[in-house]
Amino acid sequence: MNTNLKKDQKNGIAKLPIPNVQTPITKPQNDKAADTVKPSLDERIQKVEELRSLTWKRQNTLNTLHNLRGFTFASDENCKLVLMDSQNNKFETNNTNLITMLTSYFIAVLGDKVSALDDEILNFKL
User: Fold this and answer.
1) What is the pLDDT of residue 79?
2) Is 14 inside a domain boundary?
3) pTM score, whole prediction
4) Which residues, including other chains, have CB under 8 Å from residue 54's CB and lie 6 or more apart?
């Protein structure tokens, strides 16, 4: 039996060179730091005012939608639509079909606006 051991071997296990291991450098997580930073009083008041403005717009849009849905149109020529601009130019019509179509369009647009404002309010962050 050969009792001569290799120079780099003890107890039958060869020594492997130790790799140069560096500890990884971790960056501090800014996500937590950003969450813990509190807005100033002025910033918070500004955010509250923005939210109040959004809720006011939503309420006004709902009121307009409710008023518009309250109209009933019959084919007896008792309804009239009048559009007037700032220079007193007027457009008038008694056509109930046209008025009904415009009312339906306005209701759809206002409904979409309310939904958009709902989403904006729900996603609002103070």
Assistant:
1) 85
2) no
3) 0.62
4) 117, 120, 121, 124
